[in-house]
Amino acid sequence: MFENSxxxxxxxxxxxxxxxxxxxxxxxxxxxxxxxxxxxxxWGIFFKSLTFxxxxxxxxxxxxxxxxxxxxxxxxxxxxxxxxxxxxATEEANADAIVSALRDAFEEETAKAVILRINSPGGSPVQAxxxxxxxxxxxxxxxxxxxxxVIMDIxxxxxxxxxxxxxxxxxxxxxxxGSIGVTASGFGFVDAMDKLGVERxxxxxxxxxSFLDPFVPVKEDERELWQGVLNTTHKQFIExxxxxxxxxxxxxxxxxxxxMIWSGEQALGLGLIDGLGSSGYVAREVVKAEKLxxxxxxxxxxxxxxxxxxxxxxxxxxxxxLDSGPQLQ
Length: 329
What we know:
By secondary structure, the chain is α/β, with parallel strands linked by helices. The protein contains twelve helices and eight strands.
């Protein structure tokens, strides 16, 4: 009864003229606050979008070579193509990108020579082989245009595979050069599974389909089979190096093809390189076209912006599969 009488009193009070004005005023204040919040959200979205566009155009404006290289190519110059990082289909140093840049450089009449500026520990023998073969093809089509490989910090394994296709190779005296070998690595968890009491269940069609499974013991015939694959790849590597370097390489050193890596100074003595010098030195003193123009394909500015903001997902999934195969590293 008390609650009913209180509700009735409030309704009678709200029905009075003065109280009606107060309720209208409160209602207006609430609606005004809601409108302000909506406006604030709209302005927030606007400024966030404006900031994103600003960053996007900054990336485009600061991208090396944007709007410059096309005009600069009209003058005599030395073309530069970067081979940076691991050589793999999913990485920056992939065969498609390098080959595309090589074709552009060879087709440009004002490019007097091509420099492969290498800073890579190696990677896929397949990707390296594609680049090696394309260099040979382009050199046969353009016999007057030479290719020079310049090794920076490191030009090892698959990276040296590519360098061997060049007419001449240069490096710094402290560069790391060589590592003419093949590796394939992994882990085995058979004993750990036994200790944990975990049973591995795998079903295959094909006697050796699961021979790289880390939870299955390695059979001796499979070990020999896999070693044969590595030996064949190593032999192909050596053949390409000797084809590219010819009589300049000192084959009498028993460690030359052992996978050993050398300093630039040691590599010069072994015939792995032709001289000590940088890209600028080669362009100025060897090619006689000091101006360097970078032909390396650049990432799409939008993708580059997303990458810098950290929106890069799942790169390692495909790489994990590739890592189990032979690598020139």
